[in-house]
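**Backbone geometry record:**
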Amino acid sequence: MLARRASSTALCVAALRALESGSKAPLVVDEQAAQLLPAAWSSALAYAGRSKLASAALHALPDLLSLGRLQHIALRTRVIDELVTQELARGVTQLVLLGAGFDTRAYRLAASVDATVFEVDHPATQADKRARGACLVPCARAQHFIGVDLEREELAKPLLAAGFSPKARSVVLWEGVTMYLPSMAISRTLAALRGLCAPETALFVTYHDASGGSGRASRSTALLARLLGEPFLSEWSPGEMRALLGEQGFALEGDTGRNDWARESGRVARGRAHERLAVARRA
């Protein structure tokens, strides 16, 4: 990403969550997402809430750019929300959001009431989020912001300095990030997590499937990412992801894709999506 401004792709994802929240039968409800968007974006969403025609046009726009993109982000959010909630219900007391972007789970997941949320992201994106989200009140017990450029900086020291406990039960979420990082940065971050996290720590990480088994990549999505200055840099086959996680001490427990998420949610999958979600646990 460009070093001096917030991630444009992260803003787009937040906008899609906010847009989905206004649907007739939303897959996910994220009332806080709109408050983290630039004023013009929030105004457009507010106007769509008052105008059926504007709402229809705004909901159609993501499909014009990349068929099924709105549904994909909504399904991904829903599935991960359920997984994180399950871990928190089991007594996990630390939630680490790697490349948090404009994530709102600290504000909207009731299950986080006894947990401390550590949001790790590029300083430029984090500053943007904190400025617009200053009025938001987390439902999490505590929320800490940690400015780290995962492509160039180490994770361990700043996370520990923020109060992360290697002995506490944790869940780590790395959503919609690995595809924008070079493989060396991903391996380095996983190695840091191996040293930081207690046994049984859950890791949820999404990645782009290089095998073709999840369908062809959306060329329009890749083009948009490049135009926004945040090109896709990394992808793996499911077998390669299993091996990568295993090398860093995480045992794979599940690996699903958009078609699986749609089926579980009772929806018909639309468009192309070769992003997958690996669920692993610290051995």
